[in-house]
Amino acid sequence: MGTFPESAWVSAFQERVNSDPELALTGKKFTADIGVAFGDVRYVLNVRRGKLESFLSSPGFDVPTNFGMRAPISVWRKFLADNPPPLFHDFFAMLMRVPEFVIDGNTLQAMQSARALHRMMNLMQETGK
To answer: pTM of the entire structure?
Structure first.
């Protein structure tokens, strides 16, 4: 597995997502192109029916997404830590209490898939740094 946030790390995350039985159930209707910014490192995650079909590294500004998540790399490292500090232990805790962690774009679509998105973020934590 590569080092966070390299493409090899995202590939390991993709394998974890695509082999997860819980996400296979909760994500049946979860289809979105999600922009993710780990500081200055950006990806677009192409999720189809709860599977991370593909991802694009360093997308141009003209690559459309449904919604995005962004935070400084220091925030992501806390989230991915083996023992995350308070407020960094959970996707929703960060969303509500860490101002540097931002969801933008079609937030309604993100929250309509909240359970699947939350599971995907838990799998991201399990992938670790």
So the answer is: 0.95
Strands of 102-105's sheet in order across: 51-57, 41-48, 32-38, 67-71, 102-105
- Per the domain annotation, does 2 fall within a domain? no
**pLDDT tens digit string along 39-69?**
999 999 999 999 999 999 999 999 999 999 9
Range of the structural domain that residue 117 is part of: 7-127
User: What's the CATH number where 38 sits?
Assistant: 3.30.1050.10
Q: Is 49 left (phi over 0), alpha (psi -120 to 50) or beta?
A: left
Distances (CA, A) of 108 to 31, 65, 69, 76: 13, 13, 14, 23
Cβ 72 vs Cβ 104: under 8 Å: no
